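Lab notebook, page 48
Experiment: co-folding of the full assembly
Goal: obtain a model of how the components sit together before planning crosslinking
Operator: M.T.
Materials (sequences as entered):
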Amino acid sequence: MNLRYLAQEGALIQQELGFVILLSIAALVAIFVRRIRLPYTVALVLVGLLLSLFPNLIEFEISSELILALLVPPLLFEATLHLPWGGLRRDLLPVLLLALVGTLIGTFIVGGMVQQILNIPWAAAIAFGALISATDPVAVIAFFRSLGVSKRLTILVEGESLFNDGVAIVIFNIAVAAGAASANGGTTYFSLSEALLEFIMVAFGGLAVGLVLGYIVSSIILKNVDDHLIETATTVALAFGAFLMAEAFGELINVPGLHLSGILAVVAAGLMVGNIGSYNTSPTTKITLNNFWEFLTFVVNSLVFLLIGIRIAFRQLTPNLVPILVAVLAILVSRAIIVYALGWLNGRLQPRNHIPTSYRHVMFWGGLRGAISLALALTLTDTFSPELANELQVMTFGVVLFTLLVQGLSIEQLIKRLGLGHKSPQQVEQQRQQTLLYTKQAGKTELARLRQEGILSPEIWEAMDAVYDADIVRHKADLSVHLQQFPELEQAMYLQARLDMLRAEKSALADAAQRGLVGEEVQHALARQLNDQVAALELIQANRGLGDEKE
Amino acid sequence: MRKLVCATRGGEGSRAAQLAAIAQAQAENAALTFLYVVDPHSLAGVDESLETAVSAELRWMGQTLLQIAQNRARAAGLDTEICIRHGRTTDQISQFLQDTQADLLILGTPRGTTANVFGDDAIEQFAAAIRQQAKIPVKLIHPDTVTKLTIQ
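Observation: model returned without errors.
Model output:
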């Protein structure tokens, strides 16, 4: 064992120790927030702030490449797993408008403002504009769930966030490359058309790689292998593999220098697994998958929030108050322009699917910044001078602090004032009872599958099946009693069921068209009719509670 | 034979109103009709282009709700009629009561205050309007009214 090896081993143990401490702090924070009504990310950023008071307390170094390659993919992959394509498709136009056009506009507004007011070099200003345009709705979504905000608003906010993360990272990388060329003494030549072309190629190329890999994993491995450990491991390989394959695509096809967006590849792959792959897996695998990715996101989120706290000394915040305030003002101005202007444009393009003004208020104030912005800020030290990188990191941390502490903690009040939180105690109870019934029935189906495959002996199956039946009967009776007490829930149940039926009819129509059973003209006419029916039903649903003058 | 009409839309007081109507029809040996009115204009924000689809969906919902009411009556051993009308709710209910020469209209009331655009006494105003138009008494049933049906 030579000295070099010992030194390496010592550094590794130091890193490991740092990791263990960070994880322990994260666990303590999580235990603490269970007792108070505070979103986890808000608590984490507060602890990060506390850590910034003691800059040398924990030694944990991670390179910028590792941050992008190791920390960012799990965050995005987990979020896409729960995004239903059906809901996303309906609002794809506003989501893409906000994520593509909005992120571009936001980057240039924020970049332009900080460049003009703070006199920051253009490449660094644009890099900051891009990294701060990535929204992080984790804290907002937590409130959405507890307040019972509509699925549509949730999809709009989550969908925008997922795609704008990818787009922001692509713009960020272009700006950082320009900054690096400038720092290396190269001419600061910048062509907007070339950058746009590169942006389109990198973004769509990345999406294509993710879609193909996601489809292969979903339709071959997840469909044919029934082992929760193998399937979960495959999704891990997919998340990181999609990232690496897109980033190294040029080398794979022998075109040096060609890079595709690894982040958008991860987003596309996650959408595939969440919407196709998860239907091809057993309930056991679904539970393992969800638990595993939830855990990984918890670890990564914790690391990112705490790492930024370690990197920034608390005393740096006060002297940088002006840049922080400028950055906060810039993100608020850009967010207002993006949400209200693009919301209006969406209403002009598809009047039947406009975004209500109340939704726009929530989308504006709910545009929090979080892990992705912080992770990207941590990578700035490689490109820009230490002073400039530090200033941008402090500004990022300041913005994240502001959005999480001011916007994050007031969004609940806004949602309530706008009347968007609808869930009554009886609705919560109905949901609980329906979910119990649903899960018991899923358990019974899985039991039948195990019996069919000969894994369970007939005696055990029969006994367990009888217990399940008794459970199901009991839950049905409980639900029936609850519905008798609150008959209005029957109407809500009807509306939801009818909506599901119409969606099934739409899916059957698409299937019939794919098989050639129906001509294009008829298909379009029927699809239009079904879309109208869905829109009508959603309108009725939204109006529920109005006009209660007659029962 | 007395004719009772129970107008329903699946809200808070719907079950209580239906059960009360069934019990009264049984007690008086009266004929009972469940009525649902398709009124797209009662909903806020109905686009002209969506009016047909909204009417169709309201009709679908009406058919289901009336079916539920009829099944409840059948379970209690009572045969009932069901009817769906299109138009403004107040006008259509009044018109139906006059057309069928009904003797009583039974309506369910919301739980607590309605807190809607019609104000807190909206249901009373609605009932008064019907009384005035159709010259027929209106009975209001609160959601917490318990009616035990005798299964025949």
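Interpretation: Confidence is low (pLDDT under 50) at residues 113-120 of chain B.
Next step: discuss with group before ordering constructs.
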